[in-house]
Amino acid sequence: MMHTVQPFRTGIPGIEAFSLASTRQFPRHSHDQFGIGLILSGAHRSWSGFGWVDARAGDIIMVNPGEMHDGSSPDSNGRRWQMIYFAPEVISELLDGDVDVSATVLLPQIRDSRQAIHFSRLFGALTEHCPDPGHSEECLLHTVVHAFRHHSTQRSWKQVIPPSIDKVKRQIDLSPELPHPLQEMATLANTSRFQFLRAFAYATGATPHAYILQQRVRLARRLIASGKELVQVSYEAGFADQSHMTRVFVRQLGVTPSRYRAAVCTNRSHAISFKTRFGQ
Predict the structure, then answer these.
(1) Is residue 41 within 8 Å of 113, Cβ to Cβ?
(2) Which among 115, 151, 187, 212 would be 20 to 30 A from 55, CA to CA?
(3) Could you tell me which of 268, 267, 254 has the C-alpha nearest to residue 22?
(4) Is 192 helix (H, G, I), strand (E, B) or coil?
(5) Which domains does the chain have, with CATH numbers?
(6) Nearest to 203 by CA among 155, 154, 158
(7) 3-class SS of residue 244
(8) What whole-number distance in Å separates Cα of residue 34 and Cα of residue 106?
């Protein structure tokens, strides 16, 4: 099995960059951020809020905060791709009020050579050894503005979740680190355990257990980015121990918590101002 993930220090809070080469299948999960990526070689098949997506070399793939998705290679050759994740507040500042980020979703897959050029320039600017803040800022604006102006929609990809299931989901979201026994969740949803399992998976795209682990990984990412030690993170995020956190982290994101920490725990006093405007 081929699987290589390289996280990069971007030097910009709220922006993460990864280079990946893998035959691995990623389970369904979601991110807190917007994601924009470029398939370099091979093919990539994934589920998204819009349905199934089949991307090939040269295609741009995109994901929205909270959007359930997975990823696999349709053959044994695997695929290579690059991803950049943007915190929603970074996107809001870049767009400077032109777009209501909370009501806008990026399309899951596009074929746009101009967007691919913008992305490649941005990825290069963010991952070079001694990045130039001014150049990175311009590349950020070009990439994000073009994506949101030309490849986004107001149509919601979110499925309407029944109130009984949403009640359980919100409880998990508020405290993923706590135990959530199946019987207690079913009781809260006022249904049997088996009916709850089916209803939750249908509404969210993941089983309750998988969703809880996903939310714990998201919490762990935030705690790691805040500078906490990994042992403490594993405890505060609800994992049995650090090795348990590592196994789940790698299964969902393809990278260990320690390598993730090395990439995101940079000097957070450095922040780019995104006040320049471009007219793409």
Answers:
(1) no
(2) 212
(3) 254
(4) coil
(5) 3-153 (2.60.120.10), 163-264 (1.10.10.60)
(6) 158
(7) helix
(8) 8
SS3 39: strand
Q: Which two tokens stand for residue 225?
A: 């980015």
- Sorted by sequence, the CB contacts under 8 Å of residue 247 that are 6+ apart come out as none
Amino acid letter at 95? L
CA separation, residue 99 to residues 67, 93, 133, 137, 142 (Å): 19, 10, 24, 19, 15
- Give 10-residue mean pLDDT values along the chain (280 residues): 89 90 90 95 92 95 92 92 95 84 91 97 90 84 94 72 94 96 95 92 90 94 92 96 94 90 64 44
DSSP string computed for 107-162: -SEE--HHHHHHHHHHHHHHHSSS--HHHHHHHHHHHHHHHHHHSEESS--PPPPP
Q: Specify the amino acid at residue 269.
A: S
pTM above threshold 0.85 = no
How many other C-beta atoms can be found within 10 angstroms of the C-beta atom of residue 214?
Answer: 22
**Closest by CA position to 201, among listed 62, 48, 68, 50:** 68
pLDDT of residue 28: 86
Residue that is written with structure tokens 């101002």 in the block? 273
Cα separation values, 160 from 131, 163, 200, Å: 43, 9, 12
